[in-house]
Each structure stands twice: as C-alpha cells, then as structure tokens.
Amino acid sequence: MIKSLLIANRGEIACRIIRTARQLGIRTVAVYSDADAQALHVREADEAVHIGPSPARESYLIGERIIAAAKQTGAEAIHPGYGFLSENSEFAQAVKDAGLVWVGPNPSSIDAMGLKDAAKKLMAEAGVPVTPGYMGENQDPAFLAEEAAKIGYPVLIKAVAGGGGKGMRLVESPDAFIDALASCQREAASSFGNDHVLIEKYILSPRHIEVQVFGDSHGNVVHLFERDCSLQRRHQKVIEEAPAPGMDAATRAELCASAVRAAKAVNYVGAGTIEFIADGSEGLRADRIWFMEMNTRLQVEHPVTEEITGVDLVEWQLRVASGEPIPVAQDELGIDGWAMEARLYAEDPAKGFLPSIGKLELLQFGDAEGGRIDTGVYEGAEVSPFYDPMIAKVIAWGEDRDKARERLSEMLSDSAVWPVKTNASFLVKALEHPDFVAGTVDTGLIGRDGEAMAQVPEPSPQVLQAAADSLVAAYAMPGLRLNAAPVRKAWFLLDGQEVEIAIGDGSDDPAESVLVTEQGQAWQLSPWRREGVHGAAAGSGAILAPMPGKVISVDVEAGQTVSAGQKLLTLEAMKMEHTLTAPFDGVVAELSASAGQQVQVEALLARIEEQE
Predict the structure, then answer these.
(1) What pTM, to 2 d.p., does this model score?
(2) Which of 185, 197, 181 lies closest to 134, judged by CA?
(3) With 0-12 CB in 10 A as exposed, 13-18 as middle and 19+ as buried, what is 8?
(4) Which one, out of 195, 350, 468, 469, has a CA that is 20 to 30 A from the CA of 162?
C-alpha cells in the first residue's frame, strides 16, 4: 500500500481524499496557492507546500511544481482529484517518469477518451452505440453550419476537449449557429487550449445517465451501476441521484455491459465514468441510449454511488494504484436504497446565478438521518473569485427515492450561509418540482421552469416577528396613538430594504442586528435607519462588473443606439463567460471597457442613457 500521497487539487475533493487516506494510515501532502493559504485542505493535510499565485494557471495547473512538491516532501504517489490536471495525459506521464505512482488511468487511456470525436469513433468500433453527428477535422464555420443543417436542428456544438459544461452550446436555428460557434470556440480555447469542436444531434427529451466503472492492472473491470444527472443548468449538473428513476433490470444490465465494454476497449485502470444520453420520451430503453463521453477520473457526484453500494471509491483508487486487484467481483456488488447529491454553490439566483464571493461569516449545514456533507470550506473561510464557487456537496441516502429526496430537501432547508449568497432555496424548489418528484426529469427542466425556481423566498411572518422582537426594547411602544389601540408594528431593514413587521413584547437587551435563517436562506435584519438606505437609482443605466474578471469582448461602441436585452460585452470570471446586456432601450453614453481588460467588482464598464 502507498505510504504517502500528494493531492494535486484543492477544496472539497482534496479534503475527501485526505479523509480516506487518513483512514488507511497514508500520510498526506497538500498543495496550495496564495488564495488557499488558509484553506481547509491545507489545514487537514499532514504537510502542505505552496506552489504559486492565486490563478490556477500559475499554480494548480503547473505540473512541474506539483511533481517538485512531491519529491520535496517524499510523497510516493499523486492523486489528481477532478478538474485541473486530472485528465491531462502529459502530466500523468510526467508523474510516472518521475518515479511516482499516478493514482489514475494510464496516459494512453486518457488520450483515447480525451477528445470526444476520437472517443466516439473508438466506441462505435467497440460496439457501443453513439449519437449521430459530425466529428471530422474540417473546422471551417461555413462547412460546420452545413453539417449542422444535415444533422437537423436543434444541435449541440461541443468542444472535443471540453468538460464540466464548458465549451458547449445548444443551437436551435441556423441563424444562431455562427455566433454560438464563435463563443464556444473562444471558451474552449480559453479553458482547454483547444478550440476544435464536434456537432451532434440534440435529443429533445434528453436524460443524462452515466455508469461508474472501475478497472485494475490485472485485467478486471466492474461497474457500480448508474447515476442520473439529468437535472442540469446550462449543461452543468445540479442534482444527481443513484440509481436512475425508471431504469428496469434489463435496461440496466445492457447499459452497464456497454459501459464495461467501453472501459475494456481502452484497457482502463482506476475510477472512470461512461456518460450516456438517453431519449426519455418513451421511458428508458436500451435502444435509445447513446454514448456521449468518458470521464477518466473520479466524478464530482461519486458519493451517490458510494452511498448505494457501500464502496469507498477513493480507497479502491489507492488500492488499485498500489497494484492490488479490485476488492470484490461484479456479482458481489448490489444496490441498497437510493442516494441524491445537491451541489451547494456560492451564487445568487436572484442575479442570474452570478458567483457570490467573500467571507463565510455564517456557515451552517443541515443534518438528517442518512445525510453526508463533503466540503472544502469552514466558517470564517473566504470564497475566492479564482476557483469554482462550490461550498459543499450535500448528500442524502434513503430506503427509497422519496425518502432520499425528502432528507436532502430537509438538509438544504436547514442550511444557512451569510453574507455569501447560495443556491439552497433554488435546490429545494427543484427537489419539489412535480417532474422531479415523479422522476421524469430531462435536461431541459431548469431551462423551462428555472425562473420560478430562482425566485428567492422571503422569510415567514412568524420568523420575522421573532427576529424583530430581539431588536426592539421591551419598553418601546411603536405606533402609540391617543384614544386608540397601539399599532404593534415597526419599520426595519431586511438586507437593506425597508420592511414593516408586526412585533410582540420586545427584548430587555435589544440587539443591533440579527440574522434570520429559513428555507436555506439567510437575511440580516436591523432597525430602520435613514442612512442605511442607499444604492444606485433605478434606471441609472450603469453597467457594473458583477465580480472581478477579464473583458473578453465588447460588442458596442460609444454613442451607439441599443435595445433592451442587447449584448453589450462579455466578461470571463469564475471559469465562465458572463454576458452583460442593456437594461432598457437607449444609447451608449459611456464606454470604459475594452477587450482584454482586467476589471474589479462593481467597476463601471458602460452607461446606458434613455433616449427622449
């Protein structure tokens, strides 16, 4: 067994790997950037090495520094986690060439599955069904537009080196194709250093089904059943579950057998996931499920598989990397109950899910029987603008699907974070959506009904009154009127907005402010003060940077007439592109942004004036 392990990652997955390594008696080494000097994974590891500045391209993506840190600390092996360099075959080979153990698949397997077009060809040869599309070398925009027309709209443009929802665009009509292609290629080049794309048919009632596979160096490959990851927002997974609702035994057997064939076709070693797209219009049928891609690493959603099988996949990774065979045979694996995972992110649904950064002054996770929290932060930690804004993976197990869903909803509802905003209430609404309850989710659900789910709830009158009472002195008589009953109401500020709240007896020791927590949300309530009311005037037309980032493109000029909703510029931040649009019809009165410019949060980028 490996005695010492360096984790070439950060956040919750680094903490997750450290937890299992500690149980196995393996010494752990963390690496960290400037932004992560006080991070949880640094605190939990036995040793930590600084590897560079905050941007990932200057730290976590520099393989030479990570290998040097392993040698410096005497680590025998490197675990890449997911993201960063986890699917970089050159890094994997460099680790091996340095005489270290690579906790992952062979570099040749990563290469075979690394490009979506080549992987699909390989899978077709192995007898694994693939979706129709164009996967050739010709990248001329006009030619690709012709191929899209042959396939038939809607189509998906996908970066061949893509993943994590990036480098992917849904195009529903020919007139939108060229712009979507340019945006997809730009994001792919920025994220993966490769702007090559493929075109494939978009399934109208798509479900995202994936199979967990595992191989060892002795020629064994097993599957650990399927997961359903159909609830997605902009091609990024939101809630995952195992097993897949509506999956019968015969379809499961055929699907999982295809996944094992796919893994064997590339001599796969370690944990991997075969991703399929299913046409769910007539339920799950084996002849309407097609291969999409393989992720040659541990998945973010691996805990749901662990919860229904009782397997620690990280332990398996470490054992197989040490040369051991897979601990059990296929017929010894089974499904016990149901599990669901929600990704709790630091983002504000009320502002288009823009990432929310800052200090976690309050961090409270809900609890339930069968519950599990995988996190890489702690109360008092900072949510940085440099990395993925995940706060935690909230996981619930139940004897059946309804029980798992109810427990997950309870855990999210009882969670509270402040002042950073989260998507907790959005997740609860998604879990309570009739289609999700019925298990008939497709990947377009949030696109159709997400606006209603994103509405941030208000605290209940009962919770507000209890909070208001703690802010009002017991002897105060707000609303006292001569010859009439007193009006027991007072004005307060709820997150800076004026609200009138009924109050009770008040407090002998009133507080200056109080946090109100309910439905997975947190609000600050304070006594009304005129000087506390501030903010830009409505309709000011100021276009401010929602977070620190880089201006990728500017689509207007000063003095240009624009219409409401028209794209003004694109900002790259938190590993995603964000389009800023005109708030109303008007003219570009001021334009201070330029392509390539680095901007800080709330920097004035443009100003739109209404035309008289």
Answers:
(1) 0.80
(2) 197
(3) buried
(4) 350
Q: DSSP for 255-319, please give it.
A: HHHHHHHHHHHTT--EEEEEEEEEETBTB--GGGEEEEEEE-S--TTHHHHHHHH---HHHHHHH
pLDDT, greater one: 117 or 437: 437
> Pick from 362, 389, 359, 361: which is nearest to 375 by CA?
389
C-alpha neighbours within 13 Å on the C-beta side of residue 161: 17
Longest dimension (CA), the chain: 91
| Contact of 275 with 228, CB cutoff 8 Å | no
With residue 144 as reference, give the H or E element that holds it. Answer: helix 141-151
pLDDT digits (tens, 9 = 90+) for 540-583: 688 888 777 889 999 999 999 999 889 999 988 766 677 888 88
Beta-carbon contacts of residue 588 (< 8 Å; ≥ 6 apart): 556, 557, 558, 559, 560, 562, 568, 606, 607, 608
Do residues 6 and 78 make contact, with C-beta atoms less than 8 angstroms apart?
yes
Rounded average pLDDT over 150-179: 90
Q: How confident is the model at residue 603 (pLDDT cuts 50, 70, 90)?
A: confident
- Out of 27, 297, 405, 607, the active site residue is 297
Q: How far apart are CA 592 and CA 578, in angstroms?
A: 17
Exposure of 22 in the CB half-sphere (CA atoms within 13 A): 12
Side-chain half-sphere CA neighbours of 426 within 13 A: 26
Residues 6+ apart with CB under 8 A from 503: 465, 468, 469, 472, 478, 488, 489, 490
Asked if 225 and 254 touch (Cβ cutoff 8 Å), the reply is no
No. of H helices and E strands in the chain? 16, 35
- Give me the half-sphere count of Cα atoms (radius 13 Å) on the Cβ side of residue 447: 14
Question: Among all chains, which residue has been given the structure tokens 């379809």?
Answer: 251
Residue 466, exposed/middle/buried by CB under 10 A (0-12, 13-18, 19+)? middle
Rounded-to-integer distance, Cα 21 and Cα 18, Å: 5
DSSP state, 473?
A: B
* Dist. CA 550–CA 457, nearest whole Å: 32
Q: What is the pLDDT of residues 232-284, one digit of tens each?
A: 998 889 999 999 999 999 999 999 999 999 999 999 999 999 999 999 988 89
